[in-house]
Design goal:
mainly beta, Neuraminidase, 5-stranded mixed sheet, 1 helix, 3% helix, globular
Length: 351
């Protein structure tokens, strides 16, 4: 399979403002929030909206339990406490209300950093019935980091990296697949598995690809991150057209880290984690709103890094486009670890 690559030149006008600040503010951003941001929890990470906007899934910890936050009552309930498991790395509402989970299926030493990282890499996809009456059903696919999940049907996309499949992928190589979840005799099953992109067919050097989200409203494209492009510390956002295999650069920002997160429901913008990355590939990031037209135009949304050692990351946008949920990160924490979930009112916020 051959893929064509299209690189758009990002306008020089997309130059970034000074970042981080010359002097840090005292205290914590969680205690000095602007009116358009509220704190939902004092623990947890990786939030995901329900499609009706009434609830929010989140993880209690890295490789931990999955919880659900109900906006009307402000109550939190466990979602995965009724069956034995080894923790989870992601949880998503499917279009039919069931829950897509990703997590390890084997016992590991939770006190060992290497074992924890290996467990994260060897996470498997499964579907949990919305009634929470039985254990999840495995789909038979490993997933690197998180999958992309359709807002309108049961289509998903996921990434394989060399760590999951060393028998066919060399270090730095990755593949992205799509598939559909169907139900046979009431049991979920993954069908129509297709290769969407293979980094080995790309004519540029990258550490790896990672899928992020379907681009609404048609959902005939995916956003993805390409890490450390051309051997630099630069990570960029790309759009993949599923019908043609064309990859288009949405950012091309030397010495900046730009990783896509949740896409807005009109498909015109995505949230990105972004920060200067000169000399270091992994940095404390802020959340920005990036145009998906290849111009590189960005609007800054959060200012958590004005406080030393703190970041805002892992953001998602509600299906009505009115809200953004995200987490607070801290320097030195485990990859993806969050320290509370926050809600951002996109209707009242001003740049």
């Amino acid at each position: 399979m051959t893929f064509r690559i299209l690189l758009l030149t990002v306008a020089a006008a997309a130059a970034q403002p000074p970042f981080p600040p010359a002097e840090f503010r005292e205290g914590s951003p969680g205690d000095q929030l602007p009116p358009h941001i509220q704190r939902l929890t004092w623990f947890g990470e990786r939030p995901q909206f329900s499609h009706d906007g009434k609830r929010l899934l989140f993880l209690g910890a890295v490789l931990g339990e999955v919880y659900e936050y109900e906006f009307a009552s402000k109550r939190i309930k466990p979602i995965t406490a009724h069956f034995r498991h080894h923790g989870f790395t992601r949880a998503f509402y499917l279009a039919n209300g069931d829950i897509l989970l990703s997590g390890p299926v084997a016992t590991f030493d939770r006190t060992d950093a290497v074992a924890r990282e290996e467990a994260r890499r060897k996470s498997w996809l499964s579907v949990l019935d919305r009634n929470l009456s039985k254990p999840p059903v495995q789909l038979g696919e490993m997933c690197s980091e998180g999958p992309a999940v359709s807002r309108k049907n049961l289509r998903i996309a996921w990434t394989h990296r060399w760590q999951q499949h060393p028998e066919r992928l060399k270090e730095g190589e990755s593949q992205i697949f799509t598939g559909d979840i169907v139900y046979q005799n009431g049991a979920p099953k993954l069908v129509n598995r297709k290769l969407a992109v293979d980094s080995r067919n790309w004519n540029r050097k990258t550490w790896s690809f990672e899928v992020q989200d379907f681009v609404p409203p048609s959902e005939d494209a995916l956003t993805l991150a390409a890490y450390q492009v051309d051997g630099t510390t630069n990570t960029d956002v790309f759009r993949l057209e599923l019908a043609t295999g064309v990859l288009t650069a949405m950012t091309s920002s030397p010495d900046w880290y730009d990783e896509p997160e949740g896409v807005f429901p009109d498909g015109k913008h995505t949230v990105v984690e972004s920060a200067p990355s000169r000399g270091k590939p992994w940095v404390m990031v802020e959340l920005w709103k990036l145009a998906l037209d290849g111009s590189g135009r960005k609007e800054r949304l959060t200012y958590f890094t004005e406080y030393k050692g703190v970041a805002a990351d892992n953001a998602v946008v509600s299906d009505d486009g009115n809200w953004m949920a995200f987490q607070m990160g801290r320097r030195g924490a485990e990859s993806g670890e969050g320290f509370g979930v926050f809600l951002f009112d996109l209707r009242s916020a001003r740049p």
